[in-house]
Specification:
It is built from seven helices and five strands, in the order H-H-E-H-E-H-H-E-H-E-E-H. With 232 residues, it is of the alpha/beta class. A five-stranded parallel beta sheet has the order 2-1-3-4-5. Strand 3, helix 6 (137-148) and strand 4 (152-157) form a beta-alpha-beta unit. Helix 2 crosses helix 7 (178-196), helix 3 runs parallel beside helix 7 and helix 5 (114-120) runs parallel beside helix 6 (137-148). The longest helix is centred in the last third of the chain and has 19 residues, at 178-196. It is globular and about 70 Å long.
């Protein structure tokens, strides 16, 4: 007996529950956004942006998914702040895997961020820490070192934890859910980009405005000396 489906036949599989999960996730994310304390977010972003305007450096750190969010945020901030006259510097402390693993191997994983700050941090620099638990030992150590160096410590957390007591500016969001909190970490970075751009959205320049893809024959856009407009 041949159980192979006929060519072109529609395969029927067991339900995965994906539709229910998608709807629930959208509802949870919508609620997390509705519960966002905009005052706390504003205070944090104003501190961050003013530091960049003054020429202070910004360091960003996190673990796991938050480690890549740190790199994402640092990259976006550097691009958006490129027109500031103070030559801003934004560094993700997770971006150099050789440095991170060397510190972890030679000393301790708990020191992968704090040891970098000892060499680079200075008064009035900003340290932005991303965490779901709010209790990661390496971030707590980084916060303590940052405070000792005279840095301003910012924290975006899913759960207050020990970092809440060490932060100068704090926002808690995402209901301690890893997915929601990490989504909002990236959203926080995108909000900072908009603040740096004076409130303007950063949209793909090839968009048609009606949701349809731009035609293949669309005119090539002229760019400035530094490659503007910026592509994120």
């Amino acid at each position: 007996m041949n159980d192979k489906p006929a060519p072109g036949a529609r395969l029927v599989s067991a339900p995965t529950g994906a539709e229910t999960v998608v709807k629930q996730y959208v509802d949870d994310l919508t609620l997390a956004l509705a519960q966002l304390e905009t005052g706390s977010v504003t205070d944090l972003l104003e501190t961050l942006v003013l530091a960049l305007h003054s020429g202070s450096r910004v360091f960003v750190a996190g673990n796991g998914g938050s480690s890549t969010a740190a790199i994402h945020i640092a990259s976006d901030l550097m691009a958006a702040a490129g027109n500031l006259g103070a030559a801003p510097q934004v560094v993700a402390l997770t971006e150099n895997i050789a440095r991170v693993t060397a510190i972890a191997n030679d000393h301790s994983y708990d020191e992968i961020f704090s040891r970098q700050l000892v060499g680079w941090g200075r008064p009035h620099d900003v340290l932005l820490l991303l965490s779901v638990s709010g209790d990661s030992t390496n971030l707590v150590r980084a916060a303590r070192v940052g405070r000792r160096l005279g840095m301003t410590v910012l924290a975006a957390l899913g759960n207050p934890g020990g970092l809440a007591r060490l932060a100068d500016r704090l926002v808690v969001f995402g209901q301690a859910d890893y997915g929601l909190t990490e989504d909002l970490h990236v959203a926080l970075g995108h909000m900072a980009v908009r603040v740096l751009r004076g409130g303007d959205a950063c949209r793909y320049t090839g968009a048609t405005g009606d949701g349809a893809p731009a035609g293949a024959g669309a005119e090539r856009e002229e760019v400035g000396e530094l490659g503007d407009p910026l592509q994120f």
